Structures are given as structure tokens and as C-alpha cells.
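User: Hey, quick favor. My workstation is busy. Could you predict this chain's structure for me?
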Amino acid sequence: MKTKAAVLTGLNQPFEILELDLDGPREGEVLIRFVAAGLCHSDLHLPSGDLPSRLPIVAGHEGAGVIEEVGPGVTKVKPGDHVVCSFIPSCGVCRYCSTGRQNLCDLGEFLLDGQMLDGTFRFHHEGTDVGGMCSLGTFSQYATVSQYSVVKIDESIPLEKAVLVGCGVPSGWGTAVNTGNVRAGDTTVIFGAGGLGMNTVQAAVHAGAKNVVVVDPQEFKRETALKFGATHAFADAAQAHEAITEMTRGQMADQALVLVGTVDETVVQSAFSAIGKGGVVVVTGLGNMEHLTVHVSGAELTLWEKTIKGSLFGSSNPQYDIVKLLGLYQAGQLKLDELITRQYRLEEINQGYEDLVEGKNIRGVLIHEH
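Assistant: No problem, here it is.
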């Protein structure tokens, strides 16, 4: 069949709208008609080369839609089911899945090159195999993906809202409550208040943190963070550090959570300085894989028993946590509608990312036309 998609064909190039050939589902695979896709900053790590990937590749890793067809052996879903895609597939049986760490599933080894789990491709263009980001490619009208990458959801939830729980919401939420272990009464500082960081704010508030401090240079994002429950918002780390020192009487923050669009050495050092004894720095944002971005005092790390750790998908279990978070949305305890600043058509994809880079959006959502 044919499908229109936003494709990256070269580094430092805009996404191109191309008509692709799409193969149907094979063993254990499903065909999805995407209704919506989220515009996440991680997709920009493909054209920048920060995440080295095989090209060409269909971008997009946040997606929600309807199952159109299932291949042999598929048991999780059926045609007509509404689903959200998890950008991390979970097989359920590898070492990590079987010990409750689905976000580290061994099937993640295929994500950057964009092939299916059998090493082949379903997208093609003029005889060339085309990958799908995270083995998905949600910036396509249709895609064939593994059943391990989809989570069935309640059909009453609008897909253009539910799409956000495929990456940005669980990654941000879990950074606070899972990886960072934010608890009632804590002081939590959050670097970056975009599509991930705003959900870290929500989670820290939900967990009962006494002080939720946001650091972001964009006034629009600082104002939005305060509306989402942050207690303080600052334009730079120096201002935040002074305030945290005062509000904690020198004890400093319990957690410093890094969710900026591109992580560098400076923001990690600022986060490390912001935490006190026994505090934890969680790095969720990405940077160039070849750059060494964590440089801190080893003596301070030891003597103050500080911790620095990474967080992938918010240390969540996609098959469980996607449904749980949507349940919180239905109960009015999680904001999704308010995260969406603007909707875009597929042909407006590059404008959407310009808006993201310029700090105009918390989250942009692409609405597919069929």
C-alpha cells in the first residue's frame, strides 16, 4: 500500500514529505492507521547526528491510532482496537522485562536503525529500504509495527490526547516518581520545562514535593510550569541555586532532574551543585552520544553520597504505565489537553519543529489526514 510520511534523507536536512510503499504485517506485526503523532525534541537528534541512525528514516516515535490489520500470531490486539505506541518495545520475557524493567527490553537494540525485529524493513522508497524511528515511524499515515510496540487503550480517550503518553508523559512523570523517587516534603529542581519537563512538574506535585523548582530560559514555559503546580520558576541555574539555598536553609534539593532538549556539561554541573547530601541527579535529556557531558567532583560525589543516574522512558513499564497514566487523565489528575500548544498537518512538520526550537510550544501534535 501507499503512505505519506515525513522522511529524513540526510544530516542537517529538513524532513521531506514522500510517498512510500508500505508492506503489510508479518508474523507478530500489526498495521496501524495513525491518527496523531507527537513532536518530541528527540526526533531532532536524528538530523543533528546526536543519535547516529541509518538513513533514510521515517521520523516520529510518539503515535496513537487504530489497528487496521494483524499478522499471524498476534494476540494482543485486533482490528479496530485503539492503541498508543510505546517507543520502547517490550517482549515480556527477556531478562529486563521479566524483572519489571520493560523500558530496558532487549528489543531496544533495533531502535536507532529503524528496522523491524527480524532485521528487515516495511517502508520502501523507489527500491530503497526506509527505516522507522524506534521501529515505528509515527510521522507516516500508516505503519507496520511489532505487537510488542503497541498498548491497547480505552476507546473513549481522544487519540490526539492519548498520543502524549507514548513518550513525553511517562518519560517526564517517571523521571520524578520512579527514577528520582520524589516523596512528600521533598525539594525538587527541574531543568527544562518542555514536553517532558512539564510532566516531571506534574509528577513531583502529585508525589507531594514541598518545593518544585523549575529552571527554563523561556518565560512562556516558566509561566506554564507555575500553572502546572511548580512553586518557583527561574530563568537560570544561578538564580535557582540561590533560592534553593534559602528555602532549604542550606540543605539543598533532594532531586535535580535534567530534561533539557540537549544535555551538556554545564547543566549537569548545575544540577549536581543544586542537590544536597544523599541527593540524586537524574539525566533524562539527551545529547550527542560521543560527547562526555558528566564532569563532577568525585570527592563531593563520595563525601556527600550524591548519585547521578540516567532515566529511559522514566524507568517505567510501558505496558502498565501507559494505561495507568491515561487512567489518571480520565480521573482529572493528569493534564494532557493543557500540554498541547498547537496542532499541525503532516506538511507543516518542519514548521512544527521550528516552533519547538524557538520555545513556542510545550507540545505540538501532528494530526494525520486520510
